[in-house]
Write a structure and sequence with these properties.
Layout: E1 6-11, E2 15-20, E3 25-29, H1 34-38, H2 41-44, E4 48-50, E5 55-58, E6 63-66, H3 67-72, E7 77-78
Antiparallel strand pairs: 1-2, 2-3, 4-5, 5-6, 6-7
């Protein structure tokens, strides 16, 4: 799945949107990710892409999300 490289993340009231480098946008319900749903906007804006752009990290809440997992409908993982 080499095309799953993130470029930009944004949110609205219902969805987490990830824009990919190839122009696609993946959108999943924000309520799939309770930690993100509970986080303030200031925290949500402080993300970085990890794993060569295939994952997203919100270090303030120790939350990691695989772009591939978004497509498969899986939730995120917490760091150990």
């Amino acid at each position: 799945m080499s095309g799953l490289i993130g470029k930009k993340v944004h949110f609205d009231d219902k969805y987490l949107h990830v824009e990919l480098h190839d122009g696609r946008i993946i959108s999943t319900p924000i309520d799939w990710y309770p930690d993100l749903l509970a986080a303030p906007v200031s925290v949500l804006r402080k993300y970085i892409f990890i794993c060569d752009g295939t994952g997203i990290e919100w270090s303030d809440i120790d939350y990691h999300l695989s772009i591939e997992a978004m497509l498969e409908g899986r939730s995120a993982t917490k760091a150990a």
